[in-house]
Structure formats: structure tokens, C-alpha cells
Amino acid sequence: MTTTSSLATDPAGAVPGTGPRPGRGRLRSALRGRGGLLIMAVFWLATRAGMMALLVKDFHGTKFVGVEIQIYHAWYNVLTTGTMPPNDPTWQYPPGAAGIFLAPDLLPFLTYFEAWVALTAVCDALITIGLIRAARRSDGSMAGALLWLGALPILLSMPFTKIDLQVTLFAVGSLLCMRYRPKLAGVLAGVGAMIKVWPLLTLIGAPRGRSTRDAIVSAVAACAVLLGVFALLFRDALGFLGNQGERGIQIESLGGSGLMLAKLLGFWPGKTNFQFGAFEYVGPYVSSVARLSLLLTVVGFLLLLLWRVKSKRWTSATPLDAALCTILVFTITSRVLSPQYLMWLLGIAAVCLTCRHTTQRPIALLIVVAAGLSILIFPLNYGEILSGTSFGTFLLCARNGLLAVAAVWSGVRLWRATVTPGPVSEPEPEPGRVDRAKVALGRP
Predict the structure, then answer these.
(1) Which pLDDT tens digit goes with each residue over 200-220?
(2) How many Cα atoms are found within 13 Å in the side-chain-facing hemisphere of 307?
(3) Which of 115, 187, 242, 360 is the most exposed place for a label (fewest CB within 10 A)?
(4) What is the DSSP string of 233-262?
(5) Cα 27–Cα 28–Cα 31 angle in degrees, nearest 5
(6) Whole-angstrom distance between the N-terminal and C-terminal Cα of the chain?
(7) What angle do CA 143, 376, 407 make, to 5 degrees?
(8) What is the secondary structure of 258-310 as a DSSP string?
């Protein structure tokens, strides 16, 4: 008897007339063929070259976002001395991030800036390849790769200047490995968590039983090993904890948009201040908004645990859908909501769309729209945000409102698909084992 999660068979095949349309089948075949792969490769090269060009040819502040790499270079100079950046309130990364900031040394023939962009492009390419490979599974779909290919350029030059694309690679890799290699999935999530904590949250939907144990134990082991290694190599490896804990309400967060709206209407007298590497609100009620944000995060986490306990029906898409819902909840309830966080959401949404059983298609569309609004916020109209104008307030409230709707809708769709009454899913063999009955019937 298997101890892994119960994963449903293809529900579409159970009802006549609900299978894929012939036209769509031909389109999927064309996309998976050499011609389709060549078109996607050309599109990737063209769009990514355009994104990189915006780092050199300024377009309403797109060149300005490259300043982030200069900050990384300054940290690199400190890290090479064997210590994490001391007394630097902007250093808010777990110790594993040091490895990413030192990685440009792998390309010594390039400048730090050039090497950073090149390595980030490699991470982007690996994500794309992983999504395309996942589409070749029996229940796979090329929609995830197409979403990533087409939606990431919406963020213009930003993806190549932030550490978030590298972190997204680990989270995407973890989810793509979850079905058949849960131990590797846990290791990738653990490594990602040592760079930025959030990839660890993707394990909340790990299939029950042995898969969950393998993933969690592997993740904890990876975190422990990396923490020990970096503690030996660098001084003050845990200094980031104090800096992160002192963060306030960033103006781009959900709480920040509420304060911005209240200020525009004349109900709140606070102001903005640059601290901890971001613009945050200071003034009355800010601490209360911060506590409310933390409360919402806790409530969201408890609801996700309740879902985990009560869910009865699992498909191959359930771990992916749960990961997207979790990251949405923690993103929208956070005290900080930087534009680069949309990279996380686009990456996890793309993983969901690699499976035809996903419940998150409309959520993925909302995230794409939110990405468009995010780039309007920063860098294109960031002055409007800092000034708290009517237009800036509208953009921020629209983006955050859209993400809040997406988080709630994602949870509702996940709950309805897995908890509400319906047929119980059949067990799937453990990873690496073969179901002889299915083989005899000619089923994968």
C-alpha cells in the first residue's frame, strides 16, 4: 500500500465530450514540435534582448533599476572579506544570498554588472526549459511556458536586476520535481529559503504521506547544512534577522495603499521616509497597520493549514495550486510588497498552468494584469506614488486590490476543488514505482 498522496486521474476523460478539442490538440502538438520550440526560442531571445537593452537605453526610469546591481556589487566587496554586511539595515537576506551575490565571480572576464545580468538570463532560460519539459507530461500543458515567455517582459528590465529571479528558479524547480522526486523538491525549496524565505512556503501542498515527509525533511536538512556552511565562512550570518524584524509599512504594500488613500482624502497626516532600503510610511496608526498585516498573515496561514487538514481530493495540480494560493496570501498580507514580487507570482502561476488539471487559470490572468499595473507603479510612475497623487493612489489601490481578489479567489477555487463534496481520488503509486494494473491496461 502506498503512503503518498491520493492524486486524481484526468477528470476530463470521465465525461464524454469534455476532452480536448481537436483544434487545441493540433496546436499543442505544433507547440511541442521542433517548429514550435524554435519559435519560442526566438521569442525568448528577442524579448530578453529587449529587456536587457532597457538597462542601457533608459525608458521612463528602466535604466535606474540597474542601481540595484550596484548595491549588490557593494555587498560583494564586503562579502569577499568574510563577513556579512555589518551595520547595514538594507541587508535583509538569509546567509545563502551571499552565494548569489558572489556568483558573478564565475564569469571573471565580465564586469560585475555584465556577469550579474548574464547569470540572471541563464536562470530565466532554465525556468523556461523546465516549464517546457513539464508540458510533455501526460497531463501537461504548454500554457505555463507561454505565460512565462510572454508575461515576464511586462516587467521590462526589472527581472535582470533583482535577486528574485534566481530565487524563483529554486521555487519553480521545487514544484516541478514535487510529483516524482519529493526529496529533490525539498532540497531546492530549502536552498531557495536560504536566499529568501518564501520558497519554503511552496511545500504546503506537498502530497500527503511519504512525499510530504521526504520533502520537508530534505528542506530542513538543506537549510541546516547551508546555514552551517555560511556560519563557518562568514561572520554575522544571522544579522539579517534584526533588520527584517524592524521593517515598517512599505508604501507599495496593501496597508500602504490604505494609508495612501486615507492621506489623499485628508484622514491621515503621516508622511513617507526612506528607511531599510525602501520608502515606508511613518506617523500615527502605522504600527497598528503593521500589526494588522501580521494578523492577516497568521489568519491566512491558519486557513491554509485548515485546508490541508480538510482536503480530500488531490490531483497532480493540487500541490501547484496550493503553492500559488500560499504565495499570494503571504504577498498581499506582507508589510512589504515590492514590484519584483510579481516575478514570484508569475513563476508559480506558470508552474500551475503546466498542468491541465489546474484550478488557477483565471488567477494567473489576474496576476499578469497585476504585473502590468506594477510596472506602471515602478519605475514608470513612481514619482506619482511617492507624491501620493490621485493617479498614483489609483494605480496602487488597483494593483493591490487585484492581488487581494486573486488571493481570495485562488483560495476559494482550491477549496472547492479539494474539500467540497465530490468523488474521492484514487491513489497514485509512489515515485519510482510502477502500477502493474495500469501498465496492463496500457495507461501511463
Answers:
(1) 999 999 998 899 999 999 999
(2) 26
(3) 242
(4) HSBSTTTHHHHHHT--EETTSHHHHHHHHH
(5) 85
(6) 19
(7) 50
(8) HHHHHHHTTS---EEEEETTEEEEESTTHHHHHHHHHHHHHHHHHHHHHHHHH
Cα 377 to Cα 164, 381, 414: the distances in Å are: 18, 5, 30
Are residues 289 and 249 in contact, defined by beta-carbon separation less than 8 angstroms?
yes
pLDDT of residue 436: 39
Bond into 20 cis (ω within 30): no
DSSP state, residue 14: G
Exposed, middle or buried, 218 (CB in 10 Å: 0-12/13-18/19+)?
buried
Tally Cβ neighbours within 10 Å of residue 267: 10
Rounded Cα distance, 357 and 70, in Å: 43
φ, ψ (nearest 5 deg) of residue 181? -135, 70
Task: Say if residue 337 is exposed, middle or buried (CB neighbours under 10 Å; 0-12, 13-18, 19+).
Answer: buried
Quick: pLDDT tens for 272-304.
Answer: 998 877 899 999 999 999 999 999 999 999 999
Counting other chains too, the contacts that 180-184 makes at CB distance below 8 Å and 24 or more residues apart are 180/431, 180/432, 181/431, 182/206, 182/207, 182/210, 182/211, 182/212, 182/214, 182/215, 182/218, 182/431, 183/214, 183/215, 183/218, 184/218
Residues in the chain: 444
pTM of the model: 0.88
pLDDT digits (tens, 9 = 90+) for 169-212: 999 999 999 999 999 999 999 999 999 999 999 999 999 889 99
Q: What is the pLDDT of residue 423?
A: 57
The neighbour count for residue 20, using CB atoms within 10 Å, is 13
- Cβ atoms of residues 254 and 401 within 8 Å: no
Give the containing element (helix H, strand E) for 24.
Answer: helix 22-32
Q: Where are the beta strands (DSSP E) in 104-149?
A: none
Report how far residue 141's alpha carbon sits from residue 138's, in angstroms, rounded to the nearest whole number: 9
The cell numbers describing 210, all together, are: 511519504
The C-alpha atoms of residue 5 and residue 170 are separated, in whole angstroms, by 23
* Cα–Cα distance list, 313 to 177, 211, 218, 241, 426 (Å): 21, 16, 25, 38, 9
CA quadruple 356, 362, 364, 365: dihedral positive or negative? positive
| 214: its cell numbers | 521526504
d(CA 417, CA 34): 35
Count of C-beta atoms within a 10 Å radius of residue 47? 16
Answer whether 349's CB lies under 8 Å from 135's CB.
no
To 5 degrees, how large is the angle CA 403–CA 407–CA 411? 165
Backbone angles phi, psi at 249, to 5 degrees: -100, 110
